[in-house]
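Internal ticket - ligand job 362, copper (II) ion:
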Amino acid sequence: MRDRTASPRRRARLAALAILALLLAACSGDASALDPAGPYAQAPHDLILVVFAVAAVVFVFVQGLIVVSIVKFRRKKDDDDALPVQVHGNTRLEVLWTIIPALILVAIAVPTVQLVFETMAEPEEEFLTVEVIGHRWWWEFYYPEHDIYTANEMAIPVGVPVRLELTAADPARSPDQGVLHSFWIPRLAGKQDAVPGQTTYLNLQADEPGRYIGMCAEYCGLSHANMRQRVVAMPADEYAAWVEAQTQPAAQPADGSLEAQGAELFRDLGDGRQACVSCHQIWDGDGARAPGIGPDLTHLMSREEFAGAIHEMTEENLRAWLADPNAMKPMQYETDNRIGMPNLNLSEDELDALVAYMLTLD
Ligand SMILES: [Cu+2]
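stdout (structure tokens):
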């Protein structure tokens, strides 16, 4: 009978196939630059294909030469000690193989550099500006035209260029001393660094409604891998309704309700614990909207994900977050410069009231 256990060779082949499948899987899904969904992603995509084609030709040519040399000049059985003819120095050849690659590089560099500047230049049509601020480990979005603060999910209208003005956390505002982050939504645009104390620019646009995911693309510490960003592209009327809702003050719970108890706890937890309001704004319409250390919660429920877009916005997840934020996302509140959200040792009753209150923030 045949031996059915896999031989080491067969196993190695299977492992190689599995790795290849994993690598190829990275090229698909809803986050691939090879599946552009707007003009600012289409242009680099097209350039990638051209550069790839040029590189492929060079690769096949060079590897082909190597293979031909190996086969043609291999040591043959009958002439054990014979060496191929030894050639050294051919000026014409050396000049050629210096000039041709140089020309290829220039031909690739010109459209590449052009494109880099185009994606950062102010769009010619009418555009929307969104300020993007990278925090450890979540993204904040500010819409200067409407005075809207939101986090992790950036709403945009379909078919309109969006000009991002990026920076990283300002030490004057938060204990996060500010480190580099990089904003990247592969299906909508290239990457751009978010740099403390500096503004960088990036344009993006979505041609179809949808939810487009991305990851922070510059290592920024402990929870870098938990720092995602989402662009939510909506038809114009839906976007207008979103803006209208976001400019409203937060919902006010009815007196005496559980939700009202939550609102009270939000302002003051007692027992010397740090108040939620010292880090989060829930704007009640009084005075100016101002950002806190943490995400603006005024319309928390208008978002489908939270905490760097890694958790679904469900009652259970919110409760788990408030009960022990560090278990839901590793942060460094206690050990490193008070970055992230602390565990506030909430009781079950406090959790009931606070979660009920959070659920009213639509
Ligand atoms: Cu980051």
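Auto-summary: The chain has a mean pLDDT of 90. Residues 134, 181, 216, 220, 224, 227 surround copper (II) ion (CB under 6 Å).
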